[in-house]
Amino acid sequence: MPVQLLKIVKGKFETPIPSHLQNEDLKHLQEGFDHTNKYFQGMVILSYPLTKLEDGTDFLKVVLQDLNDLCSRINSINILIYGKMAEDCAKVIRHGDTCIVAGFKLAKSPTAREDGRHDCHLEMSEEAGSAIYCVAPKYVYTSLNNLKDGTIVNLYGVVKFFKPPYVSKGTDYCSVVTLVDPSNVKLTCTLFNGNLDALPKIYKVGDIVRFHRIKIREYNGQMQGVTSGGFASLTFDGTVGAPIVPRTSSKMYSFMNDEQKMIEELRIWAASHLSVSEPVAKLSGVQPMLFFDLTCQLVGKAKVDGSSFLLKVWDGTKCPYPTWKVPVEERDLEGEKLLLHQLRHLTVDILVYDNHVQLAKSLKLGSFLRIYSIHTKQASGDGEDVSRLEFHLHGGTCYGRGIGVLPESNPDVKELKTFLESVDLAGSQNMESMSSVEFDGTFSNVTDLELHLQRIQQLPVTVLTDHQDLNNTELKTILNSPAPQQYRLRAKLRTYKPQKLYQSVKLHCSKCNSLQEVPDGEDFDFILQGSAVTAPNTELHSTSWYDSVMWTTQDQKQRKIAIHFVKHDEMLQQPEDTLLMVEGGTLKEIWKLTKRFKCVIPVRSTEDDLELLDLSAPFLLQGNIKYYGCKQCSTPKPIKNLSSIAAEQQPSWEPTEIAQVLGIEPLQYVFIMKFTLVDGTGALNAYLFDYEKFFQIPASEILTNNFLQQKMEMTMNALCPPGRKLDDLPWLECFIKSYNVRDATKHQVYYQIFDTTVAEDVV
DNA sequence: GATTAGGCTTCG
């Protein structure tokens, strides 16, 4: 059969190529050579529509590329097919197919000069005894729930998370991409390539990717994708109805109808199963203390110091807050001076740090960027009375922090360009007039910020939760009175400590009244590592009140991990209701378990029982919160006591109850701050000791909850706006008590705030 | 030819 469609089965042709035929390279296809028993193999990179010659003969032209010689300047050749063979071929041949052609006639190509292909073309027809074997690359795609360790697969996925390519500490760029598919399984892929272009061009969550030849490995008990030698990717916009245009650096890729259908299906699935990312922020919509992604154009850049670099960008909208300008040497600033001047009220300075510096330096002026996870921060410079909004791209790549360059073809860029052009047309005149009113302080367009500031200057930013009938006492009077007493007062918060709010969270033991720092993750990790040295004692596994499972890690350490699932009524409960005890786990594994299970108690085994770890480690993890016990006041009791809670009708696994049965005196998270209050008659330092009531933020949650951290920072900015003159500070209504502290040599009066809370509408 | 990183915000 002159035209034959071959299948590849297990890496070989299903029907073998006739054995007398031998492969010939493109460069050996020359006039004067004998090609009788030779074949040429290439991939279809172009296939023209079937036409008829003047004499009525069918004619088909296809272009084959030599896959073995992609580096040569000339690596493709025209194939001209005549008669019935042309007709047959047109039916089966597709872009991306591999074709084997034999029995051809070689002739000078009249178009070589224009099309830059081989000087000769190949003429083929049935009459001449030609043969074409066509191999459609049949890619098999594995769904994410069917991945096996050690395999190389092709797959599709919807991007659930990604880090735009960044410079790794090794030799390559790195991009981390987490995919999901309709099997609802996630796969995090770590992709490396020395060439930035070879990594997938993902611009937003929801984009769809097709990966070819990705290697699957097991890492930390989960499947992981990593780049293999032949890795290739296509990326598509994930929006339902958007044009299906693959983004790829590869000049050659197969893409056919099946693939189109796959993209459409995934788009529809994603639309109903993937949480939609938040609306894209514009500079006009930014708030202090936010992390956001910005699509913008680069108009200036400058080196600042070794670890930071400045990008001046704009998106055509005006930030409602006064913005921070990073001081740089005039000669260090790259960019068109006139443009920078014209846009000076619309550009913002973004300071990028550490690992982002190298990429930032390489950015081209005028290019369109998406900067991921910019942090806004309100701060005031030295001697300034207004606070300014700072934009930081901190070091590291957490949460996908990074910089991506968007091509001009990107729909968001097209929209932005149109918008920027319209801003430009409105004229710099507008900008000029705007800046002049800004300068003489008659800016009539009162922003939300200013309204907000006006409001907080009139009403107190804190209110009393009790004692409203009492009259205010001046600070001078309080300072001159003996302790202990209680007062209502009205004052301004001149300053507070610690300024770094994460330093204000401590652990408090209500029994011995001691305070201690919250241990950090490293301390915990260290204790876990120490306890993992001893293998779980299997004699303690699966008792009347818990079921145990154990496995050994695949890595070199061969670590043993045991999980003991506490039963209720002799049955296992739903994961979200389950308390489990874990032995030998790492910080990360334990953290993962807390995501799925209600409570996690890290334990180790002794000869005859399970026991809690050192009390420097949390005795319990629930959700995001680590619960610690007081070392002085706790007398740990047998783990078996937990079975009494498990036997309750509906075990609630309350941390206090767990602590009690385990003999643990729980430490409570508390905010400790020192407020310097002033009222014109005097100044006093009052301590704030607050579990939750004052800020209406649980101290236990703030260290792991970014939203709450932002809320806290905004609250403090409202109570004590940075850079403001004393007159412009808001009033606080507080209730304080004075108390005596005496030791052998000294007597002092201290003050503590209580029964006071931040006003509801402050944040 | 291995390495890079292996998601879960900095602390400037």
Automatic annotation (TrEMBL):
The gene is Pot1. It is found in: Chromosome, Telomere; Nucleus. Residues 141-271 form the Telomeric single stranded DNA binding POT1/Cdc13 domain. This is Protection of telomeres protein 1. CDD domains: hPOT1_OB1_like, hPOT1_OB2, Pot1C. Gene3D superfamilies: Nucleic acid-binding proteins (2.40.50.140). The keyword Translocase does not apply. GO terms for molecular function: G-rich strand telomeric DNA binding; telomerase inhibitor activity. Keywords: Chromosome, DNA-binding, Nucleus, Telomere. Belongs to the telombin family. GO terms for biological process: regulation of telomere maintenance via telomerase; telomere capping. One of its GO terms (cellular component) is nuclear telomere cap complex.
